[in-house]
Amino acid sequence: MGTTAQELQPDINNGLRDGVESSNLARTAETNHPTSSFPFLKQYKWWIQMAVFSFFVLAGQNLGVLLGRVYFTKGGNSKWMGTLVQVTGFPILFPFQWFMKTDKDQTEVTTRNPSSPLNLASVYLCLGIFLAGDAMLYTIGLQYLPVTTYTLICASQLGFNAVFSFFLNKQKFSPYIVNSLVILTISSVLLVFQSDPGDSNKASKTKYIIGFLCTLGASAGYGLMLSLTQLAFQKIIKKETLSAVVDMSIYQCVVATFVVIIGLFASGEWSTLDREMDRFESGKVSYVMNLFWTAVSWQIFLVGCIGLIFKISSLFSNVISILGLPVAPILAVIFLQDKLTGLKAISMILAIWGFVSYMYHHYLEEMKMKMKMKQKKETDDIEEISLTQRLG
After folding, report:
1. Mean local confidence (pLDDT), 237-245
2. Of 97, 105, 118, 117, nearest to 253 (Cα)?
């Protein structure tokens, strides 16, 4: 990544600059494009994409978590099935992939030579296997923990992602980022001392600890996977197209699906699925629809995450994910009868505080960058006037 003054370059500013450059390239390509019927939309294409990807992350994450909790609450008991629905929604992206392959958009730009198919296949294979393992850890956490506790522990993924971004993506730290990491860590650690979850999920203390550790490990793995995905886009994929986002979503999920299916049959859980469907409290149709919409929700979430990584950075993608975490506990209290205990409330407040601290860091850096750009423009204007006077 590039750096600004004081060796600090926030990811969002880098994304904003890339967005401006991409918009300029897009407008140049669109000048002779016969289908440019909506110049206003073309001008703000980058911002529209950012809003759509952010919505995908927020909506997909919260729906996926709630539907996953409903699956276990209503009688679902298969960890492998709970994991499978997190990665098997990729077929819904096939029409978009086909459309992007057959209708080339002149506004999309490839700025560097793409890597070989073997390198791309290696990336998809490694990330797919990693995704399968991480999804399993999340499933165990969601099975043993109430939604409120689960989502608050997931807030720690921002801290893990910041650490991995420092080493893999050259992310620079500031006092506000450090403050954010410390607060988010405390927010998650508080929940392990909770003696009674106080929810409809009556897991034993042992299972509660297992769920806590699995969710914490999954958060660390997710933070690492986001940083690796950003590194893959920078070093291997080297394509600035939306089709690259869809390809990444599909191919890593194909690999993850095969891995989970192998685990499903190897564990013997496949033989219990018929009985699980029959005993599902809301009926067979509700069972199937729960699994279907859970798969769709997580696929939408994954597309949004990869899109934000592609457009800005892994850390910003994670920030948007953390932004939506307080929504799931509130919905769980309303619809799943989870109880918002005092310890959870304190943990939620700390999580929001940590997020605000992180965003304030980006606000300050954006102000610094704007000031620097303004000073540079003034210097260039002075030099241009001076040169004109000398030539005159």
Report:
1. 78
2. 97
Which among 114, 56, 107 has a CA at the least distance from the CA of 306? 56
CB of 340 within 8 A of CB of 333? yes
Q: Which of 308, 306, 346 shows the shortest CA–CA distance to 329? A: 346
Residues 6+ apart with CB under 8 A from 161: 222, 223, 224, 226, 227, 314, 315, 318
- Whether 375 has a pLDDT exceeding 50, the answer reads yes
pLDDT tens column, 260-308: 999 999 999 999 999 999 999 989 999 999 999 999 999 999 888 888 8
Sequence-ordered alpha helix ranges (H) in 145-241 = 147-154, 157-168, 175-189, 205-232
Task: Give the model's pLDDT for residue 376.
Answer: 82
183 beta partners: none
Question: Is the model's pLDDT at 20 over the cut of 50?
Answer: no
Cβ atoms of 261 and 251 closer than 8 Å = no
What CA–CA distance (Å, rounded) separates 266 from 264?
Answer: 6
**Alpha-carbon gap, residue 15 to 217, rounded angstroms:** 29
C-alpha 329/C-alpha 345 separation (Å) is 10
CB 323 within 8 A of CB 351: no
pTM exceeds 0.85 for this model: no
Q: Which residues of 201-224 are buried (b: 16+ CB within 10 A; e: fewer)?
A: bebeeeebebbbbbbbbbbbbbbb
For residue 57, give every residue at least 6 positions away whose Cβ sits within 8 Å of its Cβ, in sequence order, or none: 301, 304, 305, 308, 317, 320, 321, 324
Mean pLDDT score across all residues of the chain: 78
Token readout for 1 is 């990544």
